[in-house]
Design brief:
Blueprint: E1 2-11, H1 16-29, E2 33-41, E3 50-51, E4 56-57, E5 60-61, H2 64-67, H3 69-83, E6 93-96, H4 102-111, E7 115-119, H5 124-138, H6 151-163, E8 166-169, H7 172-179, E9 188-190, E10 214-218, H8 227-235, E11 244-248, H9 253-258, H10 260-263, E12 268-272, H11 277-283, E13 286-289, H12 298-306, E14 309-313, E15 327-329, H13 334-346, H14 348-360, H15 367-383, H16 385-394
Parallel strand pairs: 1-2, 1-6, 2-3, 6-7, 7-8, 8-9, 10-11, 10-13, 11-12, 13-14, 14-15
Antiparallel strand pairs: 4-5
Helix pairs in contact: 1-15, 3-4, 8-13, 13-14
Length: about 400
């Protein structure tokens, strides 16, 4: 499988930049021949991967802030599109990322190369709408910057959705938001993300029973991730009797003011941004992740890898199976989450069974497994009608009976 992976940001940095780096590493481990066009590089990729940055050379890099984010992404897109004709015959599939894909997709269509568009989250319009509605409901004026409605971004992304041959969705939840808006199921390719098993692993010593419960929340987008649901459920449960609810991630000042009373409870501990999340997960009993929207709940995979049981919404159910390795509630059902916290607090045997279930299946969700899943998605794209049409168009006239 010969892949051109176009990523407009600094591959190997935080958040989606880390996801992209792990995807490429997983593809290489799965045996794919990968050519990467990143905007810039933050950490080295495997030696087998060919890397040609678009917005940097050596230590010199075009400053995204100075140019403007959307302009920088558009420049990356145009550079990749201009490079493509020279790669005709060398590439089986092109993998693109949002807001930097439209010109590349058009060039691929001219060349007959299938395109797959990464969807790290659900449909953008859906994200804007549900986050705005929840912010209004709880009295928050400004959502996390990724989810402040932006008509320019929305128009660009919806044009990309329509133009791409396939949409890469890492979860049923994300895929359904596209189907609900009229996209055919045949346009959606399922794959997955994963976790780094060298960083997220359980404590080596057997876990001892204890009377208190330690809950953990990991995330920066408090409203989208449902942190306020977790606060309400925790404070309404008996686990507050000696337990701890740790929050790893920055909370916006407006959010802290709105929930000042809840956050001041003695069992609530704000840790801020942390670099020791694997160790926090090793020590915690449960991960609280009642998200209202997810593309794929990476932290749930990481928690399972570390032996920390997810208590999560059904926006995060790819690896979280109710009563097997997790407890799952419907989005927004605080009372169900409160009951789940109460159950694992009052029934240590249930918590132990769920943890054992998580550990049994943890290696099914590594980034190497994710790479294999992504290669399978590419293979579907290469066998699909777009690739077949391109093959017919490229064959000599007499070979197709003309």
């Amino acid at each position: 499988m010969r892949v051109l992976y176009s990523f407009p940001h600094k591959i190997g940095a935080d958040r989606i930049c880390y996801t992209a780096w792990q995807q490429v590493r997983g593809l290489a481990a799965a045996g794919a021949d990968v050519l990467v066009f990143p905007g810039a590089v933050s950490r080295p990729l495997p030696a087998s991967v060919e890397v040609e940055p678009t917005l940097s050379r050596g230590r010199l890099r075009i400053p995204y802030k100075l140019l403007g984010k959307l302009r920088a992404l558009a420049l990356h897109d145009r550079i990749v599109a201009r490079r493509l004709p020279k790669l005709a015959g060398r590439i089986d599939v092109v993998h693109v990322w949002p807001c930097a894909a439209l010109e590349t997709i058009k060039a691929c269509k001219r060349l007959g190369i299938p395109t797959v568009l990464e969807r790290p989250n659900a449909h953008t319009r859906f994200c804007y709408e549900v986050v705005a509605a929840e912010c209004k409901r709880i009295g928050i004026e400004t959502p996390h910057y990724d989810y402040q409605a932006n008509d320019e971004v929305l128009a660009l992304e919806e044009a990309e959705f329509a133009a791409a041959d396939y949409l890469l969705c890492a979860s049923d939840f994300a895929a359904q938001t596209f189907i609900d808006r009229g996209f055919p199921a045949a346009k959606i390719l399922r794959h997955r993300y994963g976790f780094d098993e060298t960083a997220f692993f359980p404590e080596r010593e057997p876990r001892q029973r204890k009377n208190k419960l330690t809950a953990l929340f990991v995330g920066v987008d408090a409203v989208r991730k449902g942190h306020h649901f977790a606060l309400e459920a925790w404070l309404g449960s008996p686990a507050v009797n000696g337990g701890q609810f740790l929050t790893a991630g920055d909370l916006a000042p407006e959010y802290q003011r709105r929930f000042a009373r809840e956050l001041s409870h003695p069992t609530i501990v704000q840790l801020g941004h942390r670099h020791d999340v694997p160790q926090l997960m090793q020590k915690a009993d449960i991960l609280l992740m009642p998200s209202i929207e997810e593309g794929f709940a990476l932290v749930c995979a990481e928690a399972i890898g570390a032996g920390c049981v997810p208590l999560t919404s059904n926006a995060c159910t790819e690896m979280c199976q109710h009563m097997q390795n997790a407890l799952v509630h419907n989005v927004g059902e605080v009372e169900a989450l409160r009951q789940h916290i109460t159950s694992v607090y009052q029934n240590p045997d249930l918590l132990a069974r769920l943890r054992a279930g998580a550990l049994r299946g943890r290696l099914d969700w590594t980034w190497d497994k994710a790479g294999q899943s992504l290669v399978a998605a590419y293979e579907h794209a290469v066998r699909g009608p777009v690739a077949r049409r391109a093959k017919v168009l490229s064959e000599p006239a007499n070979s197709v009976g003309v």
